[in-house]
Design a protein that fits this description.
Blueprint lengths: L9 E8 L7 E7 L5 E2 L1 H12 L5 H4 L5 E3 L6
The site of zinc ion (ZN) has 8 residues, from loops.
Length: about 70
């Protein structure tokens, strides 16, 4: 997968969802170059935006508490 910001390489990463206790580990994407994070919910929102009206991402992007687990491994 290619990063939407810097066209860098993105790798699969897992995130801990703090707010939703029912789904603790979520697979997502993280950019090795700029650190851009894309989790499943963000992807879902982007797909909805394509189908619906053109809304700036900054407005609709959810502010969720996710921690990139793989980032702390060194
Ligand atoms: Zn990037």
């Amino acid at each position: 997968m290619q990063c939407v910001r810097c066209k860098g390489r993105m790798v699969t990463d897992y995130f801990i969802d703090i707010e939703n206790s029912g789904e603790l580990w979520m697979p997502g994407w993280r950019c090795l170059v700029c650190g851009e994070v894309v989790d499943p919910l963000i992807l879902r929102h982007r797909q909805v935006q394509k189908n619906n009206a053109e809304v700036p991402e900054a407005v609709t992007r959810p502010k969720r508490k996710t921690i990139p687990v793989g980032a702390s491994r060194g």
